[in-house]
Amino acid sequence: MSALKVFSILLLCCVAYSVCYDYKTALTDSLLFYEAQRSGKLPSDQRVTWRKDSALNDKGNSGEDLTGGYYDAGDFVKFGFPMAYTITVLSWGVIDYADIYTSTGNLEYARKAIKWGTDYFLKAHVSENEFYGQVGEGSSDHSYWGRPEDMTMARPAYKITTSAPGSDLAGETAAALAAASIVFKTANSSYSATLLTHAKQLFNFANTYRGIYSQSISDASSFYSSSSYADELVWAAVWLYKATQDSSYLTKAESLYQEGNLQYSNGGFDWDTKTSGVEILMSDISSNTIHKTKAKSYLDYMVNNQQKTPKGLLYIDQWGTLRHATNVAFLLLQAVKLGIGDSTYTTMAKSQVDYALGSTGFSYVIGYGSSYPTHAQHRSSSCPDAPATCDWNTYNGQQANAHVLYGGMVGGPDSNDGYTDVRSDYVHNEVACDYNAAYQGALAALIKLGVS
Asked: Which region is the signal sequence (predicted)?
C-alpha cells in the first residue's frame, strides 16, 4: 500500500471517529508495563528504573532457583497458569506481526518480554514430569502493601507432579514454550531448540498424567481456578505442530479436540479457556471445516448478540471487562486475516481497543492520553522510592500512585460504563499480565491494517 493511500485511510479515520489513536505508542507502552512486572534480578537495560531487584530468594522445595518471571497483577505472587497464557499470546502476536514489531522498534523488547517468562519456565521445569506452577502464597502476599523489593514474608513454591498432576498448567506452559520457540527460531536457534525440547516434555507430562492443576496446587484455586484441561491439551498440540510441522501433533490435536468435546463448546478465550483460540489456529492448519464454522459462530455472536455497555464495550464478565473485550478484538482481527468474517469484525475490534484508549473521554490505559487511571491497584507503582515508607497508609491515601505504570490496562468499567479511579477496587482498577497480552496483539494487528 502506498504512503498516500495509508495517509488517506488515516485521515478518513480521524474524520469519522473525531480522534486518531496512536497504536504505536500504546504498543511500546504495553511492553514497558511488562518490564514493571518483572521479578528477580533486573537487567542492565531495564527501562522502568523505579523497579529494582526483588524476590531473589525464590526457591523450590529442594532449593531450585525460581527467581525471575512475572508478578501476576498488582500483587507479587507468580501464578504460573495465567503467566504461561500471557507468554503464549504475546508470542502469537509477535509471530504474526513481526514486521510491525520491527517497524515500531519493538521487536527486541518483545523478544525480551517473552524470554523473561520462558527463562523462568525453564527453571521451573525441574524434571521431565515436575513443574513449579506458583511461587508465593496468595493470602499472605495480599496482606502486604509495599514494594516487592522490601518483601519479607515466606514465599512457598508449589509444583505439579505425576501424583499431583496439572494437565492445564503443563499444557499451557508447553504451548508458551512452543510458541516462543517460533519467535526465537532465527534470532537464537539454540535457545529455540531448548524451548521446544521442554515444550515436548511438558506436553507429554500433561497428556499422560491427567488432572486439573488447581486441585493439585490448592492455593491457586482461590485466584486462578481452572475449569478444564481439555482445551489446553489441544492448544498445546496445535502450537507444537506450528513449531515443529510434525503432522503427528496436528493429528493429536484433532483427536484431543474430539476427546475433549470441544466441538460442543460455546467458545471463549482467556487465561482459563482457550477454545476459540484453538478454533482460529485450527482454521488455518486443519482441513476440517468445523473449526472455521465454530470460530465464525463465536465471533458473530460477540459482534451481534453479546451484551454491550451503553457506550459499546463488549461486556462478557464483570472482572476485567476490558481484558475480555480486547481478547475478542484480537481474535476478530486474526479471523479477518484468515478470511473469516468481514469489515464488521475489524470495526468491532477497533471499537474495543479504542474504548480502552479513550473513546469515551477516559483512557483505561495508564499513561496514555490526558485522562487515565492514577490510583490503580498496583503495589509497586503506588509506592514512592525507597527509603520512603510504603504501607497500608499509602494504600488508603488519596494521593495518586507515585509512579506512572505506562501501558498497564486496568480492568475497566461496569456494565453501565461506570468506573471510579480508586485503589481499593481490584475488580475494575487492577492491572494484570494477562490483561495486556491479546490487547497488545490487537494493537499490532490494527497497525498492520493501517488504521488508527
From this structure: 1-18
pTM of the model as a whole: 0.96
State whether residue 158 is helix, strand or coil: strand
DSSP-derived 3-state class of residue 132: strand
3-state secondary structure 241-303: HHHHCCHHHHHHHHHHHHHCCHHHCCCCCCCCCCHHHHHHHHHHHCCCCHHHHHHHHHHHHHH
Which one from 270, 421, 425, 434 is the annotated catalytic residue?
Answer: 421
Distance CA(88)–CA(319), nearest Å, equals: 21
Would residue 430 show up in a list of annotated catalytic residues for this protein?
yes
Q: What is the dihedral of CA 286, 290, 293, 299, to 10 degrees?
A: -80
Please list, in sequence order, all residues whose beta carbon lies within 8 angstroms of the beta carbon of residue 419, skipping any fewer than 6 positions away. 362, 364, 412, 413, 428, 429
Question: Active-site residue among 35, 272, 430, 434?
Answer: 430
- The answer to whether 29 is a known catalytic residue is no
Looking from the CA of 433 toward its CB, the CA atoms found within 13 Å total 31
Q: Which three cell numbers stand for residue 292?
A: 472455521
Q: What is the pLDDT of residues 328-345, one digit of tens each?
A: 999 999 999 999 989 999
All domains of the chain, ordered by start, with CATH?
23-449 (1.50.10.10)
- The β-bridge partners of 15 are none
Per-residue pLDDT of 394-416, as tens digits, reads: 999 999 999 999 999 999 999 99
